[in-house]
Design goal:
five-stranded mixed β-barrel; globular
Length: about 400
Amino acid sequence: MSGTAGSFTPRVRDSGGQWPAPPATWSYSSLRDATDCPRRWMLSRATYPGLWDRRGYPPQPGLTALAGDIIHAAVDTVLTALRAHGCRTSADPAAVAVLKGIGGYTRLVEDGIAAALATLAGNPRAAGKTAALGTALQLKVPEMRQRIQSIIARAPVSLAADDPAAAAPGRPGPLPAGSYPEADLHAPDLRLAGRADLLTVTADGCEITDYKTGSADPRHADQVRLYALIWSRDTALNPGGLPARRLILSYPSRDEEVQPPAAADLDALAADTAAQITAAETALRDRPPPARPSGVNCALCGVRQLCDDYWAFLANRPAGESRAPGWLDFEGTAIRQNGPRSWLLASQADGSQLLLRTLTEQVPFAAGDRLRVLGLRHAAPDAAVPAAAMTPMSEIFILDGPAADHR
């Protein structure tokens, strides 16, 4: 990867960009990403004028992430509507009328699908995939509806303040008792911000609930603990310094409580987070920023095609360090077409050959092109010439520069 202090040019064709500046305020996810891999953080948030006019590298759309966004948006809509109409629980007699007024759960999911697909317009990595994703999301409507209903039914708090009009969403001021979906928290002295899925303020503290659409992860507890810290330092919404008394992770089939940090724990967490911010910003000043490739860090990285360190890692990875069983990424040269829907490739690392099975007869490369191919499924890994098949979510990137001679 070449470039200057302000710009960079990866070997992937037409992917030159401008480095971003570190944020003035950090979130849990952005700080975690920058700590795990500074280069991934920078490449993900850079600008790519040759690809599109939005900030950040075009994200590859994923079914799980889209479904999670739809569920979160629907839950926010329902809880906000219940609160606005003075419903104190989801079992309130007026709740049925409120739900009908916003179209019901199925309508919320279907509207969410339409909105999610609309965000893919203009995304070059979504080209040709939107219809298939739409079909897959429609098949998940009953599952998403059930998940939303489960979250609403398990909401552990009252859904309205004594005076629902006393604190409009987003109002800068002390929050009275009540529940606040999608509550934006800020701790200016720590340069931290977070969005709690549901914040419930009581007379002597608050409860923070975070909804998770996937499986449990130890980092989820770290996230809600950081929300407790931000809440404790939010002088606008919580000038009295009320503590977080309950932290709840809401998974698809259960709720899990996390022990809230005590006052001394909050001070230690603040100091540790400040040190993480300093370390992250130091690393982000390097050009290029350091990469920290590993099986865990790179498995779902959306910019690994741009990172030379990732491909070097693949060529020399330790035993057990791989993307996922049955899947592979491949860097090499297209040698020749082997059939209507297959090509023979040669590895950039050692010249070993791979038979690439494509979905169609039309491919975006020609013999002699150097390629990076993401998301292949092993088709015949033990054959004399191993084979790998593309799926609808596989991607091919063409590299600039001369190819190695594998004749």
